[in-house]
Amino acid sequence: MRAKGFRGTKIACLAAGAMSLIACSGGGGTDGTSTITVSLMDAPVDDVTAVNVEIAALWLKAPGSAAKQLKMSQTPMKVNLLDLTDKSAAILIDGQSIDAGSYEWLDMDVNADFDGVLDSFVVTKTGGHEEIRVPSGRVRLVGGFEVAANQAVQLLFDWDLRKGLVDPPGQPGFLLKPAFRVIDVHELGKLGGTVALTTLNATGDPNGCLADDTNLDIGNAVYVFAGSNITPDDIDGVDPDPIAVIPVEPNSTGDYTYHTVITPGTYTIAFTCQAGKDNPDDGQSEDIKFVAPVTQTISADKEVAVDF
Question: Each residue of 148-160: b (16+ CB within 10 Å) or e?
């Protein structure tokens, strides 16, 4: 079960497809101006029950100009990242007018430091509260993009906690590093599917599902790699690294399911029940077993099912 976090965050509805975020946020301006909407979701992890983050500001930088602070839906905005899925993303910026043209970057300030203040913090499985530190207090969401005249830019950011949330040995608290994928909501596909209980609980454990934990609900994830016929690998900063890691969770029928939104393209999709062994910051490659990699092309406004 996902822990409840901060309350009152403005939520986007993406369940109906690419146009639903436009409907929820009001879309672009009515006077012909360009607008920007920014939403946030995350890819959960196994070893914490809440990742509460206090977002202080977003900044947009055009070449030759000082960075401009954008007006957030709430300031500061407090979110539990584990509550934010593609179906319940937090709207950070809601249809704000901007000039057409080139932009160097979009940055986000986070109130997160080891200062004794629980503005951003993790709740551990034992119920403990551990502070989060974001190095420099600012993360880059995206760099180098263009905004056309009269365009309603709608960006959804996935903060991948399997890559970004680090529990450094011998140090207090957690580090939260930038680990984003950006999705243009106007060009958005869907990926989902079912992992059969027999895949996890096969006789003799051929898929190694008990290698990282005795609980079959732990460590189940679908790794998505850009390109066709990619040999799946763990997250280690060396290609091929996954562009997304999607949690696989039990459903009411006894099987397991996953779902995400994704930029159209061709991907290699693989399942593992050993994601609990994947430590991106230990400086070594883990020997993780992947089940049946599949190459799949995903199109905008289409939902693709890949089962294991």
Answer: eeebbbbbbbbbb
Distance between CA atoms of residues 111 and 266, nearest Å: 37
Q: Record the tokens describing residue 78, joined without a space.
A: 């407090």
**pLDDT one-digit tens code per residue, 190-220:** 999 999 999 999 988 999 898 777 788 888 9
Neighbours of 301 (CB within 10 A): 13
Task: Output the CA–CA distances (angstroms, integers) from residue 62 to 37, 66, 136, 220, 293, in the order listed.
Answer: 17, 7, 21, 41, 41
SS3 55: strand
CA distance 155 to 179: 15
**Does residue 55 have a pLDDT over 70?**
yes
What is the C-alpha separation between 48 and 167, in angstroms, rounded? 11
Distances (CA, A) of 100 to 30, 151, 153: 15, 8, 10
Q: Alpha helices, DSSP H only, in 37-187? A: 161-164
CA 202 to chain centre: 30
pLDDT tens digits for range 214-225: 788 888 999 999
What is the pLDDT at residue 283?
59
Decide: 144 and 24 in contact? Cβ < 8 Å. Answer: no
| CB neighbour list of residue 204: distance below 8 Å, 6 or more residues apart | none
DSSP bridge pairs for 129: 123
| pTM of the entire predicted model | 0.80
**Tens-digit pLDDT profile for residues 227-268:** 999 999 998 888 889 999 999 999 888 889 999 999 999 999
CB 70: neighbour CB atoms within 10 A?
A: 18
What is the Cα–Cα distance from 182 to 142, expressed in whole angstroms?
A: 7
Q: Which two tokens stand for residue 257?
A: 């399911």
